[in-house]
Amino acid sequence: MRIYPGAKFNLEKTEIIPIGTKTHRDRVIQTRKPNRLEPPLNDNIRIVPDGHPVRSLGAWIGNKTDNTTPWEPVLNNINTALKRWKNGHPTLDGKKLIIQMIVGGMTQFLTKAQGMPKNIETALTKIIWGFIWDNVRTPPINLEQLQ
C-alpha cells in the first residue's frame, strides 16, 4: 500500500474489503498482504471477510453480504417510534402523517442507496397496517383502497 507524504490514516478506523476472486480474497485475509510484493498490512487495519458488510457513506457494502442485514435496525427503530406515537391516540389522518414521517423518513435514504428487498417491503407493509388499524383482524377497508 503506497502512503503519500503528509497523508495519515486512522488505522483503528481503516477497513479493507478485498476484491477479486474468492481465492485472492481468502489469501489477502490470511496473509494480510494486498499482493505478493507488498509487506503485510498493519495489525490495526481490519480486513473484512466475505459476508460482513461495512458501512460507507450510509450504504452497506461487502462481498457476499445479506441485503436484509442493514434493514434490521431500521425496522426496530420504526417499531419503537410507532409504539411511542400510538400512545398519543392519533386520528386516521394523524396516523397517515406519522407513517409518512417515520416510515418514509427512516427508509428513504437506505432504499435509494441500497435498494429494498421484497421481504423488507412486506414487513413494512405489515407494520404500517398494524399501526393504522390497531392490529385488528378485519380492518374496515382493504389495503388497495387504503393506498
Describe the structure.
With 147 residues, this protein is mostly helical. The chain has two domains: 15-61, no CATH class; 71-146, no CATH class. It contains five helices and four strands; from the N terminus they run βαβββαααα. The protein has helices at residues 22-31, 71-86, 92-114, 118-132, 143-146, and strands at residues 15-16, 46-47, 54-56, 59-61. The strands form two sheets. It has a two-stranded parallel ribbon. Helix 3 runs antiparallel to helix 4. The model has no long low-confidence stretch (mean pLDDT 86).
Label the structural class: mainly alpha
Number of strands: 4
How widely separated are the two ends? 53 Å
Please give the domain count: 2
Global Rg: 22 Å
SSE layout and pairing:
Layout: E1 15-16, H1 22-31, E2 46-47, E3 54-56, E4 59-61, H2 71-86, H3 92-114, H4 118-132, H5 143-146
Parallel strand pairs: 1-2
Antiparallel strand pairs: 3-4
Helix pairs in contact: 2-3, 2-4, 3-4
